[in-house]
Write a structure and sequence with these properties.
The complex is a heterodimer of chains A (270) and B (290).
Chain A lengths: L1 H27 L3 H7 L11 H9 L2 H32 L5 H13 L6 H10 L6 H24 L4 H9 L4 H12 L1 H17 L2 H6 L8 H11 L4 H30 L1 H4 L1
Helix pairs in contact in A: 1-13, 3-13, 4-7, 4-10, 5-7, 7-10, 10-13, 12-13
Chain B lengths: L7 H25 L2 E2 L7 E2 L3 H7 L2 H40 L1 H16 L2 H11 L6 H8 L16 H13 L1 H11 L4 H9 L4 H12 L1 H17 L2 H6 L11 H11 L3 H25 L3
Helix pairs in contact in B: 1-14, 2-14, 3-4, 3-7, 3-8, 3-11, 4-8, 11-14, 13-14
The chains are: A mainly alpha (270), B mainly alpha (290).
């Protein structure tokens, strides 16, 4: 008896959490006429992809996806590379003053973006980098690698010294040891970092919103966020746009699910 | 004895990058906070005038009282509810209905976490829209039209509505963290407690919660910082309005930087927020159980 009660209550919570997703899917494939007559809960009589196609056209969604993929991909690769280099020096090399550097990277990770935005905006304008995807890539590479360094330095501090000694005996230099020994052995952690950096950068709004003003440079969240501000869309167009925003995120979730749930807990184990 | 020479060059590029993108701009913002500047021309030194103006600005205090409620909605309630749901999934669902069911339910609860916050705003902005939104339409259909409200546009409800959306966004994160933590708890502790006649609730509060204290600390600090920094949902859902009902520090700074060209004033606001976050993190790290 009590078992079913607990389970029922849990199921209600899960359904409540998932309800918005169901509503979006139901109404994204509905015609505005059917929405007006049958309402948001009705299952559409026949599928209409008109709303999705219209929205895709209107914001040139393909271009936005390409921009988001380019920016997030570059940040993920560069962010992992910078994190690995930094963490190699701090975690394995234990360079002098490493605790101070680790503190500085942690601090860099804590600073709210609005405390950086105006100088970055000003500097980018001076360097003619304003409204460029490159500027956003550079900024997020720095921000993400600050976190990555902090996490990875802790992991590399436990790196088996025998492997390093073996590499040294084989005459491998620092760089060779990093590429041939440390990086391959740490691949699971690097994979988690890559996934995090990609998804986090994909989801960012504040800095891209300010830096990417021309249509051709905007990312998916910026395009959706700006459009929402205009408040000129009907219910089915809004759900179509939401579905297009949700789809890549859910796709990453399914692809990276194992890495993500492993990674979400990575910070806690230390 | 390992040779520690030759590692320095690996730190140089990363350090240079973080200095350029974080350290230098942060120092510039702190410097600008003591000036009056519109973004063009040269800043005029005004000492502490911006800070004096802040403490007398009703919007400043409003944005901070709102952020306290955001911490409740994004850190405190998700942690408490997450503890309970994680325990139910771990102790109740997994042993009786199998790990697969527990994992599937966990994934469902985690799903809102993977959405871009801007998309979350669009989804809820539509559901809560007063005229064509799904919630009011549904309430109408089932004969509860009297409960329909202008959820985001009425300053009596806007903040609570935003808080509810934040809870929806956050709940998956503590559940995943706590379920991972519960796996570390030694089953023998549970058995011993059961032999002593402890019920489920006692085992939960006396053993489980105690054992996963590190996870609880991590969740509390990361979600509190996220609440202090919250921007995207506010930008997409309410733009701080109606009036200043849902104003938060980051949006307040954004308005002053880019809409009102009060760069010095916005810098002072950002500096206050930075100091607050760093101080809070320091305190958390100090009191965190080892």
């Amino acid at each position: 008896m009590r078992r079913w009660f607990v389970l029922g209550a849990l199921l209600v919570v899960v359904l409540l959490v998932l309800a918005p997703f169901v509503l979006i899917v139901l109404n994204a494939v509905k015609t505005p006429q059917e929405y007006a007559t049958a309402g948001p809960l009705a299952v559409p009589h026949h599928l209409s992809f008109q709303g999705i196609a219209d929205f895709w056209q209107r914001v040139s969604f393909g271009q936005k996806l390409a921009n988001s993929a380019l920016i997030s991909g570059c940040v993920a690769v560069l962010g992992v590379a910078f994190s690995l280099f930094n963490a190699y020096a701090l975690g394995i090399g234990r360079v002098r003053g490493r605790n101070w550097f680790l503190g500085a990277f942690l601090l860099a990770n804590l600073v709210p973006q609005e405390a950086l935005i105006y100088p970055l905006y000003y500097i980018a304008k001076q360097l003619d980098l304003y409204d460029s995807r490159l500027a956003v890539i550079i900024i997020f590479t720095a921000i993400q690698s600050a976190f990555g360094t902090f996490l990875l330095a802790g992991v590399l501090a436990e790196f088996p010294p025998e492997l390093l000694d073996a590499a040294a005996i084989d005459g491998a230099g620092r760089l060779r040891t990093l590429i041939r020994v440390v990086a391959p052995v740490s691949r699971p952690t690097l994979g988690v970092l890559f996934t995090f950096f990609f998804v986090w950068t994909w989801n960012e709004l504040f800095i891209p919103l300010i830096f990417l003003i021309s249509n051709d440079n905007q990312t998916v969240p910026v395009a959706l966020g700006v459009l929402q501000g205009e408040r000129m869309m009907d219910a089915t167009a809004t759900s179509a746009s939401a579905l297009l925003g949700i789809a890549p995120a859910v796709l990453f979730f399914l692809v990276f699910q194992r890495t993500l749930t492993r990674g979400v807990t990575a910070g806690a184990i230390k | 004895m390992m040779n520690r020479k030759g590692y320095w060059p690996f730190l140089v590029p990363g350090l240079a990058l973080v200095s350029l993108v974080v350290a230098v701009p942060l120092l510039m913002t702190i410097g600008t906070s003591f000036t009056e500047w519109s973004g063009v021309g040269s800043p005029r030194w005004t000492g502490l005038a911006n800070y004096d103006r802040l403490v007398h600005d009703e919007n400043f205090w409003k944005s901070f009282s709102n952020i306290v409620l955001m911490i409740v909605a994004m850190a405190v309630v998700p942690t408490l509810l997450g503890l309970f749901l994680a325990a139910v999934l771990f102790d109740y669902v997994a042993p009786r209905l199998g790990n697969r069911t527990a994992r599937a339910l966990r994934s469902g609860l985690y799903l809102p976490q993977v959405l871009p916050l801007a998309v979350t705003g669009i989804v809820w902005g539509w559901i809560l829209h007063p005229s064509y939104g799904a919630l009011n339409t549904i309430l109408d259909k089932i004969g509860l039209g009297g409960l329909a409200r202008n959820w985001l546009g009425d300053d009596r409800y806007a903040l609570y509505t935003v808080m509810a959306v934040m809870l929806w966004v956050q709940i998956g994160y503590p559940i995943v963290m706590f379920m991972a933590g519960l796996q570390r708890v030694d089953p023998e502790l549970y058995e011993a407690a059961s032999l002593d006649g402890a019920g489920w609730w006692q085992r939960f509060t006396r053993i489980a919660v105690h054992q996963i204290r590190p996870e609880i600390a991590v969740v509390l600090i990361t979600t509190t910082i996220a609440a202090l920094k919250v921007f995207a949902q506010i930008f997409v859902l309410t733009r701080g309005g109606p009036g200043n009902a849902t104003l938060v520090p980051s949006y307040f700074a954004y308005q002053n930087y880019f809409e009102r060209a009060n760069v010095g004033y916005a810098s002072a606001m950002s500096t206050v927020l930075t100091v607050l976050i760093v101080a809070l993190t320091y305190v958390f790290i100090r009191v965190q159980p080892r």
